[in-house]
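#lab-general

N.A. 3:47 PM
ok so I finally got the sequence cleaned up, no stray characters, all 363 residues accounted for. can someone with queue access submit it? mine expired

B.Y. 3:52 PM
send it over

N.A. 3:53 PM
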Amino acid sequence: MTEQEQKEARVRELLEERGLDGLLLRRASSFSWATCGASSYINTASDYGEAALLYAPGHRYLIANNIEAPRLAHEEGLAAQGWEFLTYDWYSPDSPLDRVTEGMRLGADHPHPDADDVSADVSRLRAQLTPEEGQRFRDLGQLCGEAMGAAIAQVRPGQTEHEIAGILSRESATRGAWPVVDLVATDERIFAYRHPLPTSKQLERYAMLVLCGRMHGLVCSITRLVHFGSLPDELRRKQEAVLRVDAAFLSATRPGATLRDVFERAVREYAAVGYPDEWRLHHQGGTAGYEGREELGTPSASGTVIEGQAYAWNPSITGVKSEDTILIGADGNTAITQVPGWPAITVEVDGQSFERPTILEVR
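B.Y. 4:20 PM
back already:
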């Protein structure tokens, strides 16, 4: 069974379980998932693309205006995938969607009139990666790691956060991974904000770069920190502590575990290293896929870890953070966003050893 056939089979199972006739997908992430990596978006800041997919009894429709249809059909290869194109003029107030869904019990991955909201179900489908998606994720992770390493090699004191963000964006985009998240903080801003949009502030000694790169619809997340001069003792202690929490996440994220259990294991480690309340100050990450996070780890998370899935945990203690994207294998987890030549230390948690990246010291 091909990747596309597997996905259609999962959709048909979902429809049967929910007692629905059809499924409408409008989110750009869902579109990429169902088409095995095609892009429907034009505005990368929007959750929604410029085309929709409809699974209906006996049909797989692609609904797009006359601007988008030719690119989707030929450049994205969706005509060859067998999608039935329903095309309308961009200026027309009428869409073929109403006609083909008339009388249909419909589910949707977004708010849609008279449709059941099955967005959580679709998110779980997106997170169940096929082997082909796993390989695309590995390729993306390698590109993001290389982009991060190349960007930080160009960072110098005196640069503004905007300049640094531009370097990171260029290194990622030129490799084919679009930077859907590009955050930079320097010096005291690292201690003040967990989601630091870049500003005109100039770097003095300490910088944090955060990248979420997208390719074929999949999204990899990675954070790295660089310090010019010797690392202060306080930062070194916090670094060692946050890496232990990260290792606890990695140790617990194994097939069959619930996200709630994984989250609670990390919360216990926060307490064990002397920072019991830091997890409250920022989300800790979770399942990765066609969104930056398909499901977050929380005290009430209901998801279960499955072999082949991707996860991006991002524990933080004020002033430090650790984040990579990993793939869940039968015999262990693999970090796919490694930066070539980056310094690391071995962290032992739960009887296991993990190599985790440290803050880069430039002297």
